[in-house]
C-alpha cells in the first residue's frame, strides 16, 4: 500500500497515476460517460423547455378561434411543439375524410363549408391518427433516455473492478462512479417527469380537439362515403 502522506498529497491524481492500465481505462470510460450524460441532460432540457414554450404559443392561438381547422387552413407552423404535431395529424385526417384530400388551397374554406359531415367510423380514424402522433412524438421525446438510465445503473458496477493496489484505487473508482451516477439519476428523474407532463398535455389536447371536431363535423346518422384510401 502507498504511504498515507503521499496519497493525501497527491489526492485523486495520485491514485489515478498509480492505477493499473485496466483501472485507467475504466476511469476514462467513466469520464466519457459523465460528459455524455451531461450532454444528453442539457440537450433534452433545452428541447423540453422549447417544446413547452411552443405548446403555449400554439394553444393560445388555437383557443382564439372557435373553428378547429382554422390554423390548419392558414398553414400555421409551430416547430418544436408536440401538441401542434397532434393537431396537424388530426386535421390532415379530418380534411381527407371531409374533402377527399388533405391539401389546403384557396378553395379550402369554400369546400369545407359545403362538405358533408363524416361518420363516427371516420371520426375513429381521426382519433387513431392523433393517437399515432402522440405515440411517435413521445418516442422522440424519450429518445436517448436509455443512455441516462444506463449511466445511472452501470457506473457503480464499473467501480467494482480492481483499479489499483490498496485503498487509493478503490476510492478513486468509487468517487468517480458516484460523480457519474448521481447527477445522471437526478437528471433522468427530472426529465422523465417533464416528458410525462408533455405527453399528458398531448393526450389532453387530442381529447379536446376530438370533441370539437366531432361536435362540428360528425353526423352520427351519416353513411360512410364510397372513396377509400
Describe the model.
With 229 residues, the protein is an all-alpha fold. The chain is 76% helix and 0% strand.
Short description:
The chain has 229 residues and is mainly alpha-helical.
Main sheet, how many strands, which sense, barrel? none
- Rg on CA atoms, Å: 27 Å
Q: Write down the secondary-structure element order.
A: HHHHHHHH
Q: Low-confidence parts lasting 5 or more residues at pLDDT below 50?
A: 1-11
State the total count of DSSP E strands: 0
Task: Quote the distance from N terminus to C terminus.
Answer: 76 Å
Helix content: over 70%
Kindly name the structural category. mainly alpha
Report the mean per-residue pLDDT as an integer: 83
Helix segment tally: 8
Task: Give the strand content.
Answer: under 5%
- Outline: elongated
